[in-house]
Amino acid sequence: NGYSSGSWTNGNVTQTASSSDNVGISYYQYSHDGSSVAGTFPNPWTINWDGQWNFYVRAVDYAGNAGAWSNVYTIRRDTTPGVPSIGINNIGVNQGSWSYNVLAGNSSDSGSGLARYEYYINNSWTTSSSKSGSGWFSYDIYVRAIDNAGNVSSNSSKIYLNAKRLYIRQLYYGMRNNNNVNESEINYYDQTFGKMAIIAHKIMGSTEAINTNSNLSNYWDRCYIGIFGRNSDSGGKSYMQQKYNSYSGYTDAYKRQLTLLEYINSTEAQNLYNNHMGAVGGGGTTTMEEITSK
């Protein structure tokens, strides 16, 4: 049926054996090792179960004479697709642009093995996992796995992504130095607070952010990555340290939170919010009074 020996398929494999004999062919035998008989089969014969095997075939005539074994014929059949997971990494949101990568993985395929992933981004399927742009966007993202037999998995769980939610992910990356953030955490900030400056302060000024980055120099570095989407510069860090030192008489945590106002109210941060989030997540600068009232 057009099957090529040794290839993977997700369909039935039907083969017809042929041989000539002066008294006629009575039946055919098959072997998996080319020496011991494993059984007989009808002609034509169909493989309709999953697995992979080597087959050798020989004819037996009406006089009981068995011919030589054929060359090996390998059949590989797999009808069960893997199930992929989905995530987002390599996030970069700055005042000029945004970018991210869809992370697919854990597609367990015990049969033919994974051939590729495909990504549903911006309402179409693509083989590219990376996306970049500027301004506002909003869409669902899925991943599916295709194995070497051509089986297509069901879609992964959904990630709903927009410019605001991508920036929230970046803030969590700044705080945690990893991409471990769940949808419920993102939903909370997305649905509770409108102004991005407040969200940035709530996350980077949280107890978790401060305790995770207890070293002050490292904390400024993580704030740059989370809030601005870039590495810190020495002049900027020096300025933030001076602002921090100027707030005498306060606890370390509150001094950091006061200094964070310099980050989120800066021209760079405000450009980022207004360029990508606009009316959805812009809204201008903020104060400690506004932040604590939320």
Summarize the structure.
It contains ten helices and 14 strands.
Explain what this protein looks like in three dimensions:
This protein has 294 residues and is an alpha+beta fold. 33% of the residues lie in helices and 27% in strands. The chain has 10 helices and 14 strands. It has helices at 163-176, 183-192, 196-204, 207-212, 216-228, 234-246, 252-264, 267-276, 278-281, 288-293, and strands spanning 8-9, 13-15, 25-31, 39-41, 45-47, 51-61, 73-77, 85-93, 98-105, 114-121, 124-126, 130-133, 138-147, 159-162. A 5-stranded mixed β-sheet has the order 1-7-6-3-4, with no helix packed on it. Strands 11-10-13-14 form a 4-stranded antiparallel β-sheet. It is rod-shaped and about 105 Å long. The termini are far apart. The model has no long low-confidence stretch (mean pLDDT 93).
Radius of gyration: 31 Å
Residue share in helix: 25-40%
- What is the first-to-last residue Cα distance? 68 Å
The count of helical stretches stands at 10
Low-confidence stretches: none
* DSSP strand content: 25-35%
What characterizes the major β-sheet?
Answer: 5 strands, mixed
Q: Please give the order of strands in the largest beta sheet.
A: 1-7-6-3-4
Return the string of H and E elements: EEEEEEEEEEEEEEHHHHHHHHHH
Structural class: alpha+beta
Number of strands: 14
- What is the mean pLDDT? 93
Shape summary: rod-shaped
